Amino acid sequence: MWGRSPTCRCKTFGYFFSKLLGGIAAIAISHPHYYTTMIDWSLAFDNAPIYFHSADREWVMRPHSTVEHWSGDSRKLLDDLVLIHAPGHFDGFQVLYWPEGAGRKGVLLSGDQPQVCLDTRWVSFMYSYPNYVPLGARTIERIVARLEPYRFDRIYGAFPKRTVVADAKEAVRRSAERFIRALSG
For 106-117, what is each residue's pLDDT tens digit? Predict the structure, then answer.
């Protein structure tokens, strides 16, 4: 039964599609802009745990038993994924690292930090995207340092057609240098 509302149909379709692919074992959300329906998705997918960094605890408006706060620089998730704390856009901002992705060259699922630019050879580092407020040089340096231990060739950004398809780690380094040069005037 598809139900009466488009939302119900979408959740029902998503649930059955997910089950065909093996289900959803966990939900990880990069930052508070995406927290709004996390509990609904968790409940729709058999109470999948939701992982986010404890530095963004204050932004959770609907506490639930499926929400799991973590702290520190990284957290292993499932067997082959790692959440990396990369504060900047938000204090608890996290990216997801998949070492086996992109033909075992590594993938970073970045949300919007680093944000993949329209010219997908580059990424940006912004505190506020709508207001064009960049992150400061030290914050950018900390983000790059947090990502340095990880091997990744690809970055999937938050939006369609925002993928660095190769040499992504170098794109992060090169972009950080460019940003810091521009900030210093």
Answer: 999 998 899 999
